[in-house]
Amino acid sequence: MQAHDPADDLALLIEAAKTAGAIAQIHFRRDPEIWQKGDESPVTEADIAIDRVLRTDLLAARPNYGWLSEETEDDAERLDDDRVFILDPIDGTRAFIEGQDSYAHALAVAEQGRIIAGVVFLPEKDKLYAAALGCGATLNGQPIHVSGARVEAEAQLLATKPMMRENHWPGGIPPVKRVYRPSLAYRMALVAEGHFDGMATFRPTWEWDIAAGAILIEEAGGTATDGQGQPLRFNQRHPQVKGVLTAPPKLHAALLKRRRR
């Protein structure tokens, strides 16, 4: 495999994210056509349009890359590719349908199972988060870092109510303040910028929901693992991971201890 600069892929993803945002805004709050997928989750004409345009543009720029997207039928050929685009055309489709401004576009590149570049873009909020391996993480071009939280009692954790039930925390429910935002990608971006201290979900999680957020957090100085503390691996045959736990390193260790007892 030839030497490769992740910053080159990041520049490509940033332009693609802006294209996605422009397409989304054509349909936002304009009653887009909606369908129900087999798992009962909604998809709109905006999701499909973004997926189609980005697949054409990105694979034209990187014809030797694989493709994994929520809105494209999966093709096992991606498993043979060293590098793969992983994206969610609209993360937070329900929020998009409801006219909320918290939907996001999440785009990433994985190299041999590890994310090397990622972008989370919220066009309605004009917030573009970006990170490439070894280059740090930014928000609208300015460096960002995870919070300095170390103590659970002082931490704000992004999670749904069911994630804070006793069965998920054998060592005791952590004394954090639970908060919530739509879109997994946006939640992870908020942790990367230090706006919140951590994020947890213990349900099986699709790779496209978390790929971009994972490198944002890691490049911002945080820790991102699956829900059991194992390293996140991407471009798997079945593209799901066993939940996600993210936080600054010492807080992550404290939370993980409660998960393992």
UniProtKB/TrEMBL annotation:
Keywords: Magnesium, Metal-binding
Coiled coil (residue ranges): none
Family annotation (InterPro entries): Inositol_monophosphatase-like, Inositol_monophosphatase_CS
Annotated Pfam families: Inositol_P
Spans traversing the lipid bilayer: none
Recorded family membership: Belongs to the inositol monophosphatase superfamily.
Protein name in the entry: 3'(2'),5'-bisphosphate nucleotidase CysQ
Organism: [Roseibacterium] beibuensis
